[in-house]
Amino acid sequence: MHDGFVGFGLANNRQGLEMFYSEEKVLTFFTDNHLRLCNFLQGQGLPFCSDLVLPADFGHDHLSLLGLPQHQLPESLARLQRDDLDSVNFCQQLIDLLDMYPVEEGLSFFLTRKEQDQIARMLGGQSRFGEIGEVEFGTLLLNWSDFVTECEEGFEGDLDEYRLGLKVRDLVQFVVDSAPEELAERICRIIEEPDATFRRILIDRRKRIDSPDAADVQQEPFWYQGVVRQQGVVLRRDLIRSGWFAR
To answer: What's the CA gap between 167 and 163, in Å, rounded?
Structure first.
């Protein structure tokens, strides 16, 4: 399964699975049991096929599904529209189908099944986090990193959406405070870089955006101290209406 798209990775920490596509290998496994991943793919309707074409068979040039004439494609692919053969589209479909998320260069980590089970038990019955408490924890770590990146470049959402990003960090901190020391340290290392970036882009830190969950953490949450520098029009409007700049 590939289109010569180098560096596309998928992970599902909850399943203990991680796989990558590269220019020389159709699938590269980083898991304790290769058969588990093959069985997982089979269960998703993606059977094993021994007749695989590697990009190396065509020289160093990368093979692209869009780069092949339609008559050279397998019958199952030849009847698809060009948009369906675009890696931008079908990679996202794979992510949804396999309940995974992209592995990005900016934030790379892997939590074991045991650690995921520990985290699930910690969050069990914690209704105050609402729907985000039901999201896979690895995805939440990526969401926090993405939120920080968006804030650094210019947050275009409203105040409620901004607070939702902060609530994701509340949940992460709850897990850090509740987890065994070794797991807590691992999570802190994972979020160290986005945390440092968020601290750097906060201004007006003498003021605080309060949160109903702030009392649940063991230390003063830095992410509520001030607001990000690059405020979009909608966020700035909501801050004005809330009296933020009048304090």
So the answer is: 6
- Give residue 2's pLDDT band: very low, low, confident or very high (50, 70, 90): very low
Residue 189 domain flag? yes
The CA distance from 144 to 168, in Å, is: 6
pTM comes to: 0.65
Q: How many domains does the chain have?
A: 2
CB atoms within 10 A of CB 9: 18
Question: Which residue, 102, 129, 162, sits at the end of a domain?
Answer: 102
Residue 91 is assigned to a structural domain of this protein: yes
Task: Render pLDDT for 97-133 as a digit per residue (tens, 0 to 9).
Answer: 776 666 555 566 667 778 888 888 888 878 888 888 8
Question: Do 80 and 170 fall within a single domain?
Answer: no
Token pair of 209, please? 């955006």
Per-residue pLDDT tens over the stretch 135-168: 888 889 989 999 999 999 999 999 999 999 999 9
Q: Which domain holds residue 146?
A: 113-246
Mean pLDDT value across the chain: 77
**C-alpha span between 153 and 173 (Å, rounded):** 24
The phi-psi region of residue 121 (left if phi > 0; otherwise alpha if psi is between -120 and 50; otherwise beta) is alpha
Residue 35 pLDDT exceeds 50: yes
Residues in CB range of 106: below 8 A, 6 or more apart: 145, 149, 193
Cα gap 16→91, rounded to integer Å: 20
